[in-house]
Design a protein that fits this description.
- Helices cover 69% and strands 0% of the residues.
- The chain has 211 residues and is mainly α.
- It has helices spanning 4-11, 18-30, 37-50, 66-80, 83-93, 96-114, 119-129, 139-151, 162-165, 168-188, 194-210.
- The protein is globular.
Amino acid sequence: MDNIKQYIQASQKENVWSLGNLVLYDLCKNHPFHKTNEEIIAKIWLIGRSYAASIERRKTNDETINDDFYSDKVAPIIQKSDIDNWINKCRSSKSINDILQVHHNVTNLFNTISGLNKRSLASKYLHFHLPEYFFIYDTRAVKSIGNVLKILGQKRFIIGKTQLEFDKEYSKFFYKCHFVQEHIKEKYGVILNCRQLDNLLIYIDNENIRK
């Protein structure tokens, strides 16, 4: 763990998951909008299932089967939302505040559908639509980014009031990831994109688990 450079180098290479992720990237690239039930269901179903963040995991007492839940609730609610406008605004502005606002909006949208906080699913869903803008959030990544900051000598991390305007937990995570990106760029001359940073977090977490 002392030589983080080897993990940085490994994170830039293709791995056994690269092809599967490419399928999801291509799906969102070829079907970027939310106009039909088919494209909406395909994207949220495959991304959610692939990343253990399925939207059908919901707070409900009804007996609606998952097929009906997708076709009768998930797709219509997403289709009626402004998600395409949110994503387009984010794509054109590249502002961190806009990125966090879009994540906040999509998290709330998924909460309306499921009754649960879908912070993780929102980050993953948006990542595959805008892979250069959104970091992948889950409990494993949160734990690992904290370890990376310690390795880099950043034991304390203070974020301003901006985080309070959006989803607090994702905002904290986002700024930590952004800091690590910039630190690695400055110290090692390596620019890691969001996917490569996620690779780095996974490699380091796996190493901790093995130990």
